[in-house]
Amino acid sequence: MIRQGVLVYESIMADLSKPCYPDLTFRMPADFAWPHGAACGVTLAWHVDGEAGPMASDRRAADHVAAISEAAYGVTTAMPRILALHRELEIPGTFFVPAHVAERHPDMIEAILKDGHEIAHHGYMHENVFAMEASEQRAVFEHASAILERMTGRAPRGWSAPAWGVSGPTLEVMAQIGMVYDASLMEYDRPHIIETVHGSLVELPISMVLDDWALFGSSIYWGGHVALQPAETAGTIWREEFEGMRRYGGLFQTTFHPNLMGRPGRLVMLEQLLTHMRGCSDVWWGTCEQAAALVPGSNPGAPFRRQP
Ligand SMILES: [Zn+2]
């Protein structure tokens, strides 16, 4: 009986020993360090899903006026307040915007750029690309990149996965078209390199701990589920994580959604949290693009390459 148990255990171990991602290599540069001896890095990243959120998997949501209004709140009501908060605390930001949302709200794109923030790739209609063929993924990446390039004057350098859908081919496509960084994976908590068969990317790791969806996520279109936690709970969790990142030298990278985090009570909490964080002198702050450029071996100048 014991022997049988050992055999089962050994077979499980054997399965685990196989490479999970045979075409990907993760490399942590030994000489990575935050500039000026900083204890950790902070990238304040926003997923401006807007109307593309509810429409991502069901275009009929376009006719659901309440669902669209909930999503649009993040753009029309919350974003001006969020940008004001960034200005007030002098914090650089990265805004991952589905290209469809950019097209619907050119004034928002202009306001983000005017304040010197980064606009990054978040699909065209917030597509979850996980189940797509590589060619289909590439078409989505190129289509959305071209729109953002036209609107902002430069191609987006990085992407964060809508619904955290990432497959091996996703990262290969990104490297192939010359993107610099991904911000979707969770195995490590410091910036590092991913080698793919088509070139390398910088990975800027995210965490569900710093994703406001985990605490405040809701979708009235999909059946009325609403998760509600006091803003104070989020503030406590994120402050703990910030102190942990200072202790271990990691990247405190948020995934905030303007329609969730931009509610007035939560913004007041966020202002208090960020004011505390800004008061710590041992922290590096930057956009995701700037964080990626800190990684030895990164390729920050890589131009966007369209399919020949
Ligand atoms: Zn999103």
The top-level CATH class is: Alpha Beta
Encode the helix/strand succession as letters: HEEHHEHHEHEHEEEHEEHEHHEH
* Strand adjacency order, main sheet: 1-7-8-6-5
Rg, rounded, reads 20 Å
Number of discrete domains: 1
Topology summary:
Layout: H1 2-17, E1 25-27, E2 40-47, H2 52-55, H3 65-89, E3 93-97, H4 99-104, H5 106-114, E4 118-121, H6 134-152, E5 158-159, H7 168-176, E6 181-182, E7 192-196, E8 199-203, H8 213-216, E9 218-219, E10 225-226, H9 231-248, E11 251-253, H10 258-261, H11 264-278, E12 283-285, H12 288-293
Parallel strand pairs: 2-3, 2-11, 2-12, 3-4, 5-6, 6-8
Antiparallel strand pairs: 1-7, 7-8, 9-10
Helix pairs in contact: 3-11, 6-7, 9-11
Bound molecules: zinc ion (ZN).
Could you please describe the fold and organization of this structure?
The termini are far apart. The chain has one domain: Glycoside hydrolase/deacetylase (TIM Barrel, Alpha-Beta Barrel). Helix 7 links the parallel strand 5 and strand 6. The protein has a five-stranded mixed sheet. Strands 2, 3, 4, 11 and 12 form a five-stranded parallel sheet that branches. With 308 residues, it is of the alpha/beta class. Helices cover 44% and strands 14% of the residues. Bound molecules: zinc ion.
